Automatic annotation (TrEMBL):
Protein name, per record: Undecaprenyl-phosphate alpha-N-acetylglucosaminyl 1-phosphate transferase
TM helices/strands, residue ranges: 6-27, 48-68, 80-100, 112-134, 140-158, 165-184, 196-217, 229-247, 259-282, 313-333, 339-358
Keyword DNA-binding: no
Membrane topology value: Multi-pass membrane protein
Keyword Metal-binding: no
Keywords carried by this UniProt record: Cell membrane, Membrane, Transferase, Transmembrane, Transmembrane helix
Organism of origin: Cellulomonas phragmiteti
Domain of life, per lineage: Bacteria
Lineage: Bacteria, Bacillati, Actinomycetota, Actinomycetes, Micrococcales
Subcellular location(s) of the protein: Cell membrane
Listed GO MF terms: transferase activity
UniProt cross-references to InterPro entries, sorted A to Z: Glycosyl_transferase_4
Amino acid sequence: MRTYLLVAVIAAVVTYLTTPLARWCALRWGAITAVRDRDVHAIPTPRLGGMAMFAGLLVALLMGSQLAFLEPVYANPRPIFGIVGGAALVCALGVADDIWDLDWLTKLMGQVLAAGFLAWQGVLLYTLPIGGVLSGSARTAVFVTVVSVVVAMNAVNFVDGLDGLAAGVLAIGGAAFFLYAYLLTQNTSRDDYSNLATLVVGVMVGVCVGFLPHNLYPARIFMGDSGSMLLGFVMAAAAIVVTGQIDPAAVVDRVRFPAYVPILLPVAVLVLPLLDMGLAILRRVLQGKSPFHPDRLHLHHRLLALGHSHRRAVLIMYVWTAVLAFGVAALAVLSTTTVLVATGVGVVVATALTLGPLRGSGRAPVPDEAEHATRT
């Protein structure tokens, strides 16, 4: 555990220290989110935060390769190369979009390329946890892997609409995923606790924590598409790795359910982004618009419309993420009944915070403030 925490701290420190450099690059290259009538931020704000995030990811993984505890993880370099290489492609694509505002088709092709590179390096979703473990053909595995990664990247991009929202949601959800992967590894491998998924998620949490001080309201820099797509890519890659690193024959009865459904936790982590993306696409298609046409009806915009302040809306999204993500992660150590009861209590609390008496006690946004500087 201490080794993983060390690598996460390295990622956080590097991200924190390089974010001002990314901000300087954004100002110099013109990657700035201007203030429009529909935006929440009051002054033009630079983006390109994803550059600092990638720096934190890269340095942390390089430093991790020098630690004896993690030697088994680096014994096969292809998965790590696939994750780092794919993340580099995604970050470069996001940087280009943050500067030049690429069209949706170009972005989609770049996302598919990055996901395809990940699959080419052997990070494949060979098993689907749907009613048990189902094995598919190599072509099916590649297709499902690419689709899963692309969906995750766009889901995080959709939810990146308020200062500190996406980074905080992924930090909280990633922490739950980190504990899940670590505990599951302990139960399935008594001699070696090193695990690629645990390492990658720990680094992602560190990256988010390092970026948050610069991104909390009022943000001095946005992560941009270079950051949101990077986080979605890394989360999806870690989820795929989990499905290939758990030996079903070694899973004890107490943890059999979470071991056979490893994709459940990443879905819980991304449930709000996925829900937001799904509703947005459905809403826009029914209105005869492009799925990528911006509007003022995202989940976080609805919280603002309910009368929550900017900070409170973000905190409410944090609470929902924590309830769902840690609820699923608890399946690794607690009985299903206990988890359901605890999660039910958490849902009641989150609902009360969302719709309860605090609503409207902050400054309610005017209609033109409901849309943040997001490209979706």
